[in-house]
Write a structure and sequence with these properties.
Number of strands: 15
CATH class of the largest domain: Alpha Beta
Mean pLDDT: 94
Helix content: 25-40%
Oligomer: single chain
Low-confidence stretches: none
Strand content: 15-25%
Order of helices and strands: EHEHHEHEEEHEHEHEEEEEEHEHH
Structural class: alpha/beta
Number of helices: 10
Largest sheet: 5 strands, parallel
Length: about 300
């Protein structure tokens, strides 16, 4: 169509969405709140062992910069009114996600006592250069790569570091990418104390209560700070604001409004890139909203098989 595209957020998902839409011939406007493009990729690429990840940003920025139908706006933090007033027919929000500070993660579905107090850090703090002082506990209930690299980062800063996880090994999910053993060896070499199969149940500001998942026995690990690597919140406030204005009839020119990447569902960088590419590929494709019915099994034969009515 002739509608222009506004992409808000220049992280991996937003960059891919903007590039793929521009390649399809759309007039694309990419707005980034900060002065540097790349979103989470920029921050994570500064962590130990992840420097090559910056290529996710570099290649896409290079491609976009050479396209006449793509415009990049840096240092442009938009409000919902700014978005609706821009005049784009297609709006996609890719504002990323924020690491949770309350301890809710894969194993723990509720806020952990004491995590609302002082000296509680998240990966966002560490990546922003806000480092804890003194001995630190890294609580990894995310189970992917972040807990391990944050522990290595703290150890490299000279902090006495204890890594705690409910899983059987550090960064347990990386067993699927054949990296788990390598990560564990790096942590041991860095001097990190590993406490696996254990969950943090409380933070006391000067130590963490840790309970063994099998024996149920608890103990306190003395520390001056704790870094909680658990789950992330989508940064969807802007999306909700634009959606509300659109529902009120103040943005009738917006044909489509979507959120993509971590703003929609916090996941991996690969997933964010896929989300942006899929959005651009399906843009103006009426068939993607069609419902395709499928045959469902009848319940009666199953009821007779299992012997219930």
């Amino acid at each position: 169509s002739d509608h222009s595209v506004l992409v808000v957020g220049a992280g991996p998902s937003g960059l891919e969405a903007a590039l793929s839409a521009a390649r399809r011939g759309y007039e694309v406007h990419l707005a980034e709140a900060g002065t540097e493009l790349g979103g989470r990729v920029v921050r994570e690429a500064k962590l130990p062992g992840l420097a090559e990840w910056i290529r996710v940003r570099d290649w896409r920025v290079g491609q976009l910069s050479s396209m006449a139908n793509a415009t990049i706006y840096r240092d442009s933090k938009l409000t919902a009114e700014d978005v609706t007033g821009f005049g784009a027919g297609h709006v996609v929000i890719a504002t990323g996600a924020t690491w949770r500070r309350d301890g809710v993660g894969r194993e723990t579905g509720f806020a952990i006592a004491g995590f609302d107090g002082r000296n509680v850090f998240t990966p966002d703090d560490i990546m922003a250069g806000r480092m804890p002082e003194g001995p630190v506990v890294i609580y990894d209930d995310d189970h992917f790569y972040m807990g391990g690299v944050i522990a290595e980062c703290c150890a490299a800063a000279g902090l006495s570091t204890t890594y705690v996880t409910p899983a059987l090994q550090p960064s347990d999910f990386t067993a699927n990418t054949l990296e788990a053993t390598h990560i564990a060896k790096r942590l041991v070499k860095a001097g990190v104390t590993l406490v696996t199969r254990s969950a943090v149940t409380e933070w006391h500001r000067n130590g963490a209560t840790v309970v063994d998942q099998l024996s149920g026995e608890g103990r306190v690990i003395a520390a001056s700070a704790i870094v909680t690597v658990t789950a992330r919140w989508p940064n969807d406030t802007l999306f909700d604001g634009v959606q509300a204005l659109r529902a009120a009839g103040d943005a009738t020119h917006i044909v489509t409004l979507k959120r993509i990447g971590d703003c929609y569902s916090p996941s991996t960088i690969q997933s964010a890139v896929y989300s942006g590419h899929r959005w651009a590929r399906e843009l103006d494709d009426a068939t993607v909203t069609e419902y395709y019915p499928r045959e469902l099994p009848k319940a009666e034969p199953l009821q007779r098989f299992w012997g219930y009515s």
